[in-house]
Amino acid sequence: MNNYQLPDQISHLLEENKKREQQEFRDLIREGGYVPPENELLVDAVTALSMGKNVLLKGPTGSGKTRFAETLSHLFSQPMFSVNCSVDLDAESLLGFKTLAYQDEKQVIEFVPGPVTNAMNHGTFLYIDEINMAKPETLPLINGVLDYRRTITNPFTEEIITAKDGFGVVAAINEGYVGTVPLNEALKNRFVVIDIPYLQGEQLNQLIKDNTRLEDDRIIDLFVRLSGDLIQAVSQGKLSEDAASIRALLDACDLSVLIPPKRAILRSIIDKLDEDREKDFVLNLTETLFG
After folding, report:
1. pLDDT digits (tens, 9 = 90+) for 221-238
2. Contact 45, 55 (CB under 8 A)
3. In this predicted model, what pLDDT tens digit does every residue of 179-217 receive, in sequence order?
4. Fewest beta carbons within 10 Å, which of 48, 83, 92, 269?
5. CATH 3.10.450.50 fits 8-88+114-195, yes or no
6. What are the extents of the domains in the chain?
């Protein structure tokens, strides 16, 4: 089995975290750009990766799954090759493609590696974003990459590729999102699942301070309250998940440094919604909080 060698600093902090919550651990996490709602989420993801397991980050759109993956990459000091899944994803998008090139003024055929083969050959992370957007017949191509074999036969070169030490897979999924399909059991069983909730309260407050230009504590508190109201409305079925995207909220915070917060929310959140009733709902919340 392919196991990671955890950096000594992380190994020590993980061990200490079993005994008590460590501010030092959270500071190290913050350097990677994402502080999870609970330390255990990141501890469990790091533990799974260090044991050679694949990690599937599951959560609503804009909840920070990609930032979570980037933080894992940061903690392991591992570069990360990425796959952005869509219905157009094919073998070439995953593994690479052949192209014409010149060597010593002679035309030759070269193979350009894709993100999967690059990550395997370099022993780094592979991040598969929105994995359930891909067609069900595409992802079985990499089943051997995702199980204990860590091996694939490249259909374009017939080369058998075995991942180097350090290779690991992190994937993200938005369940029930438009254009997605359920993961088949064979694929899902190749992952350890980490459920990522929205950031709220003090953690969201700190995220805004760390990742936007907004410095006015009063306005930041209002944005945190707005986010909480949006998340509650989503849970009650009054709004789609897009309305509560943390990514969109951070955009609104940034814009509010130079334009009125209500207009910033209009551009970053409200105008992205499809239904007039949802737009009116968010607009009413905005008017109530920001006046």
Report:
1. 999 999 999 999 999 999
2. yes
3. 567 788 888 899 999 998 888 998 899 889 988 999 999
4. 92
5. no
6. 8-88+114-195, 201-290
